[in-house]
Design goal:
disordered N terminus; 8 strands; about 260 residues; alpha/beta; eight-stranded mixed β-sheet
């Protein structure tokens, strides 16, 4: 597990991503934010624009997202990530980790909107971790820290990220009965896991009851947003030392 250092190979002399000055947040995005009560400063919109431009431009080199349309990406990536803001504002965390961050969703948009919160982005794939470091540098995010490693190893007993975080985020990581083993060990006792889910959220919660019991966690509520559903889990007691299991085991044999 290694920390990744930023690279500026895709920025010009002004620090801009090529083409980001010609791109703008669409009106549909602003309308959704207004409807959902999300207030962003102009500088935050600028950073979100820069990040999304870099994400889509880099996607032409290797796969970071299946969504390549500019306006659609604002809704399905940026706005969808920002729907977590109300929960974070209520919880007031100091330390947040985004598990399997991939292209930086939801971690980077949230870090832009919450500069007073530290965000650790955990990503197993080296080239994606390098992209995350590059994006954090391009957006001048001093509150973002990149870790290149697998969740099963990063949260193992004795590792510094275990039992550390106030909030653990997971978006598009896997079914709930799998991702709970990959997320709950990172949370402190009383900490919260937020799993970004879709229409099958209720089914997945029921499916994950045995995992919740074994991991000493509980389902608090499921919040419906304009783009999905947020499953809120609380860590009630210390995670048993046998979890998480070895890399690949949680997916092969869900709890």
């Amino acid at each position: 597990m290694n920390d990744e250092h930023p690279s500026n190979e895709h920025q010009n002399a002004d620090g801009d991503v090529p083409g980001d000055r010609e791109r703008h947040a669409p009106e549909a995005f602003h309308a959704l934010c207004a409807e959902f009560g999300i207030v962003l400063e102009p500088a935050e919109i600028d950073r979100l624009t820069r990040y999304l431009a870099l994400l889509l431009d880099t996607n032409a080199q290797f796969n970071l997202t299946s969504i390549t349309d500019w306006e659609e990406a604002w809704t399905k990536h940026i706005f969808d990530s920002l729907t977590l803001l109300s929960v974070l504002t209520e919880l007031q965390p100091a330390e947040v980790v985004d598990i399997g961050s991939g292209g930086g969703l939801p971690g980077i948009p949230l870090a832009i909107a919450k500069p007073d919160v530290n965000f650790t982005l955990l990503e197993a794939t080296g080239k994606k971790a390098r992209f995350l470091a590059q994006a954090a540098e391009a957006c001048n995010l001093q509150n973002v820290f990149i870790v290149n490693g697998r969740a099963e190893e990063a949260a193992a007993l004795g590792e510094p990220l275990r039992d550390r975080f106030d909030v653990v985020l997971a978006r598009a990581v896997g079914r709930l009965n799998v991702l709970l083993e990959l997320t709950v060990p990172f949370a402190r006792i009383g900490g919260i896991v937020i799993a970004v889910k879709g229409g099958q959220a209720d089914v997945e919660v029921e499916e994950a009851r045995p995992a919740l019991h074994k991991l000493h966690a509980a389902h608090l509520e499921t919040i419906t947003t304009p783009t999905g559903r947020l499953v809120i889990i609380e860590k009630r007691r210390t995670t048993p030392k046998v979890y998480p299991r070895r890399p690949g085991e949680p997916k092969k044999h869900p709890l």
